[in-house]
Specification:
Layout lengths: L7 H28 L6 H21 L9 H17 L2 E3 L2 E3 L1 H18 L3 H26 L3 E9 L5 H11 L2 E10 L4 E9 L5 H9 L5 E6 L1
Antiparallel strand pairs: 1-2, 3-5, 3-6, 4-5
Helix pairs in contact: 1-2, 1-4, 1-5, 2-3, 2-4, 3-4, 4-5, 6-7
């Protein structure tokens, strides 16, 4: 086993600077996740990036003098191991699978750490900026032009309610698609319950629905989710 003497210049440029940048770059990605209240946030991304940087430095410096050792083996191990952390951020909620984007951001944080460990600072900086933009602006573009928001409207009315056609016509005007309708009757309370699932790009969709339904006296309760 070879022992290394402490070299201030080598410590600063080969170890301290990459590790500090790992905390900064990983923190930038993590901050975006933290602001949106995701399962893995600032600390997780910072530690993942710092850990990947540290492993890479160990791979490049600690084993560089050994013959027959491939430094890329540790990097490959980091890529494989980070998948287990990412998998922990993914969970299922009903028919929806959430956390995939956060798992991908953890993977990106690890790649930034690998780049910093090999002192590819330009690549690390570019990946951080592009990753942050992808998490921030692409989501807005996706929601604005690609994904159509879903709304579930639950309406409670009296048993004598007869304005279903009026509700249906209004929903067809303000929404992109009326996906399904479900009717239930509560015998004990003599209440009729209507559940409608619709899609709409209108940012004021919920307000318009509430304003329109408030005009119908037979409606007792409306919830939109």
């Amino acid at each position: 086993m070879e022992y290394f003497e402490f070299d201030t210049s080598k410590f600063i440029y080969d170890i301290l600077i990459p590790c500090l940048l790992a905390c900064v770059f990983g923190g930038i990605i993590g901050l975006q996740r933290e602001r949106h209240d995701r399962p893995a946030g600032l600390r997780t991304h910072t530690l993942v990036c710092l850990g990947a940087t540290s492993f890479t430095i160990v791979s490049c410096l600690g084993f560089s003098s050994q013959t027959g050792f491939d430094p890329s083996r540790i990097a490959a191990g980091v890529v494989t191991g980070i998948g287990f952390i990412g998998a922990g951020a993914i969970f299922r909620q009903g028919s929806l699978v959430k956390g995939v984007t956060t798992a991908a951001s953890i993977w990106v944080a690890a790649s930034i750490g690998l780049a910093l460990g090999t002192k590819m600072y330009y690549l690390a900086a570019a990946t951080t900026i592009l990753g942050f933009l992808a998490l921030s602006t692409v989501k807005y573009i996706e929601e604005k032009f690609v994904r159509i928001p879903n709304y579930t409207i639950n309406i409670t009315t009296s048993e004598n309610f007869t304005s279903y056609k009026e509700i249906k016509n209004f929903l067809e005007k303000v929404s992109t698609n009326v996906r399904y309708k479900k009717y239930n009757f509560d015998d004990e309370k003599n209440k009729m319950m209507l559940t409608v699932n619709v899609q709409s790009r209108d940012p004021e969709f919920s307000i318009k629905i509430l304003q329109q339904l408030s005009k119908l006296k037979e409606i007792e309760k409306v919830t939109i989710s």
